Amino acid sequence: MSAEFQALLRGPRAYDLARKALEVMEGHHVWPTVRNFELWVCYVSESTSPLALEIDRLLAAGEPITETLGEALAAQFMPDARINGGILEAGDALSKELHTVTRAIESAQKSSETYGQELATASERLSGDDAQLKAVVADLTTATQKVQADNRLLETQLADTRGELGRLRESLDQVRRDAMTDGLTNLTNRKAFDESLAAMCEDAEAAGETVTLAMLDIDHFKGFNDTWGHQIGDQVLRYVASVIGRLGVTPRLAARYGGEEFAVIFPSESGRIALGVLEEIRIEISSRSLKRRSTNEDLGAVTVSAGYAERLSGESASSLVERADAALYASKHAGRNRTTAAQPLAVVAAA
Ligand code: C2E
């Protein structure tokens, strides 16, 4: 169990949260396994966490919370995904150690080869009278050859281990990528987005550069889900994500912020550039009429509303999110399917 969870269960709200979690689990026919309990205590403890928002979305879509879904949610949202980082660091440290040991053995092998050659030369130079000495040198040569053979064996074993470690590192990289990715849309997930935004704001502050944040939300998504069912809803999410992801490529960062809301970070790019990209995304999304693939039925076009904010000097990541989100909701209130620039901080504060 994670440290946060341990703290939660030893804090003043512990029994309340535990009771509430069990109640909600029973209401949704979820078995009280240890993993489920951890998941649902986190759900009831913070109603606006990415996990809680995703569970709410699934419940609203009438999705049964099955064992498999519970496991997928835990893998995506539970804090012990941080263990991945630890494992990866351990793998890196091990790899460095192995490299050092390999170097040491290679160097020892070279010395023993040189030593062996010197012994052979010395043996040749000894005259016939030095029979006893010659025997000693011969013994030493044999011992050296044995050391060389052992070293060669060790080198082969180390090469195998290095190969294994490389494969292990690839698996760990995959685990890390999975922990940062939203399973449905393949965009960056909320947890990784939060971390990246904080880091990019810090970098922008240090370098005196700008960073722009955009928030996008699918219009009338709930209606889509209600009319066509959540499987089509998921296809819509994937479609919108595919367009956002195509235009939000590195160094930009495109993420699923939660439910039907997406975010794009534009490091070192102004609001003017972000506006151009957002308009491209918005127009491309609305230009296609989607089909229900099983029946070829027309699902109609999907539109998105967007808002963006260019970071102000000294502004925190959360304030930037707040301003971009407010701009997004201004787009919604103005009739949807449009992009709005955020208000400066002073105007937000006065409102
Ligand atoms: P997907 O179904 O996994 O499709 C991945 C990509 O394969 C699509 O990327 C598209 O390039 C191609 N593709 C798949 N099926 C078709 C098809 O029947 N006709 C054409 N012309 N291309 C096809 P794309 O377009 O970016 O879509 C990404 C995801 O968005 C799709 O993943 C799907 O989940 C959803 N989507 C897009 N358009 C539709 C649609 O008209 N109806 C439905 N139900 N889903 C759609």
- Shape assignment: elongated
Point out poorly predicted stretches. none
Number of folding domains?
A: 3
The CATH architecture of the largest domain can be named as 2-Layer Sandwich
Q: Catalogue the ligands.
A: ligand C2E
What is the helix/strand order? HHHHHHHHEHHEEHEEEHEH
Share in helix? 55-70%
Q: How many helical stretches?
A: 13
Determine the strand fraction and express it as a percent band.
5-15%
CATH superfamily of the largest domain: Reverse transcriptase/Diguanylate cyclase domain
Largest sheet: 5 strands, mixed
For the record, give the distance between the C-alpha atoms at the N and C termini, rounded to a whole number: 43 Å
By secondary-structure content and strand pairing, the structural class works out as: alpha+beta
Order of strands across the main sheet: 2-3-1-6-7
* Overall strand count: 7
CATH topology of the largest domain: Alpha-Beta Plaits
Mean pLDDT: 86
Name of the CATH class of the largest domain: Alpha Beta
The quaternary state of the protein chains shown equals single chain
